[in-house]
Structures are given as C-alpha cells and as structure tokens.
Amino acid sequence: MDAEGYLSVTDLLEHSYCPRITWFSFVLGLRPRGTIKTEHGRRVHEEWARQPRPGQEGGLPAGLRVGSWEVVSRRRRLRGRMDAVVAEGERLLPYEVKSTSTPARPYPGQLLQLAAYALLLEERTGRRVDRGYLHYLGDGGVVEVEITEAAKRQVGEVMEELRQVVETEAMPPRAPASRCRDCGYRKICV
Questions:
Q1: Residue 1 resides in a domain
Q2: Residue 111 lies inside a defined structural domain of this protein
Q3: For residues 186 and 171, what is the distance between their CA atoms, to the nearest angstrom?
Q4: What phi and psi, each to the nearest 5 degrees, are found at residue 13?
Q5: pTM here?
C-alpha cells in the first residue's frame, strides 16, 4: 500500500502467496530482501522487453504492444504495471510475461494478476475484458486465459483480506511450508 492508500497488483499477488508477506511489509514495515528467483525473473523480464519483434513470430498474438503499461483505479484504490497489452480494436487485453516454463495450468496467483489487470483496463477503457495472455519464457509458450467474473470478484476479496491484515495488525497464518523456500522473509518468519 502506498502513501495514498493504493494497493498494487503485486501486493495482491504477494498476499495471495502468503498473507504474512502483507503483515511483514505493511504492519512491521519490513521490506523483503530479493531472492535469487525474483532477481532472475526481473532480469528475464528486462531482456524480453528489449527484444525486437518485427513479425511477432513464435505464436505471439497480433496487436501485442510491449512496454510498461501503468493502469490505476481511483475507485478501487488499485494500481499496477503490466508487461504488455494486446490491442483488439478499441479493447485492450492484459499480457503478462513469466520467467518459467508453461505449467499444466496457470497458477492461481497468475490468474489473480490477470483478473486484477482486467478490472483496471475495464475501468480505463470502458470495455469488458474477458481474457488475457500469459507468456512463459522458459519454453516460449503463450497461453490465452479466460478471465471470469468469479476471478474478478476474487480480486476484491483478496483486497479486503489484505486491508484487514493491515487494519487489525494481527499476524495471519502462514502459507503452506512449501512456499517458504522462495520467500524473502523466510529467515524471520515463525
């Protein structure tokens, strides 16, 4: 949450991964140290954004516009920065890049991220957003994802959960231990 009370889409992702990240960040004011995994992801994103795409080979959708696309909702008090968008006429669809290989199905946090960006794009453009794309750089896979109304409602639910942790200052339960390995707070979390 920033000084103006806005949450970022990244805040939602971190909260859905483990609510204690919210507690450490916003209640205790501790920022995590970067992990090897997050540093790798940042570096791969930067390299991808600099690549030329003359004919958008490799299954990339027509209308792909690469760049840092910031979207803000005053009404929702939510902001985010997308990796790219796909333009279809007057409609914009979210396009997110992941440094991993294509999973059997997208991870819940990835679906939440697309749904949050869909809500932000809907407010910005006034057009319904019912799908988005995930591009997995590990193997080059591009997956078109349906963005349901239920997924959009989940964004609001996660925002409410996150705000509750901040308001009550109560330490929430930890996520499954398997997630701790890649967490920047793992050395101080009980």
A1: no
A2: yes
A3: 15
A4: -60, -45
A5: 0.88
